[in-house]
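Query structure, 119 tokens:
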């Protein structure tokens, strides 16, 4: 079964209560999630099964983040990255650079840059 992923952009991610809710959802749906927390922009990446990614994105939408944008809808990953994703769960980074480095490490920086409008 091929993995799926999605990318969300928001105004910011600062609520620890919402982050805790997203952490529980990542565990519940067996997804890997990466959040860029703190200032603007807030960025969220999710990877897992089709159902897991769709459910996780629905959870994000339900939290009513300011300026919610699904910049890359849930879709099958076109090519499997060289680096394995690791365990399901939620990780946080504090800068866009760190987020970009994580995307590079996973072999999907080109996809991420296109979705974010950087290229």
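Result returned for the query:
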């Amino acid at each position: 079964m091929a993995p799926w992923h999605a990318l969300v952009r928001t105004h910011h991610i600062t609520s620890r209560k919402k982050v805790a809710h997203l952490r529980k959802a990542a565990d519940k749906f067996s997804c890997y999630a990466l959040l860029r927390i703190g200032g603007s922009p807030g960025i969220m990446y999710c990877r897992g099964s089709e159902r897991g990614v769709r459910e996780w994105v629905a959870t994000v939408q339900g939290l009513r983040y300011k300026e919610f944008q699904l910049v890359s809808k849930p879709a099958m990953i076109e090519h499997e990255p060289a680096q394995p994703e690791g365990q399901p769960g939620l990780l946080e980074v504090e800068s866009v650079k760190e987020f970009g480095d994580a995307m590079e490490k996973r072999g999907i920086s080109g996809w991420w840059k296109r979705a974010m409008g950087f290229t």
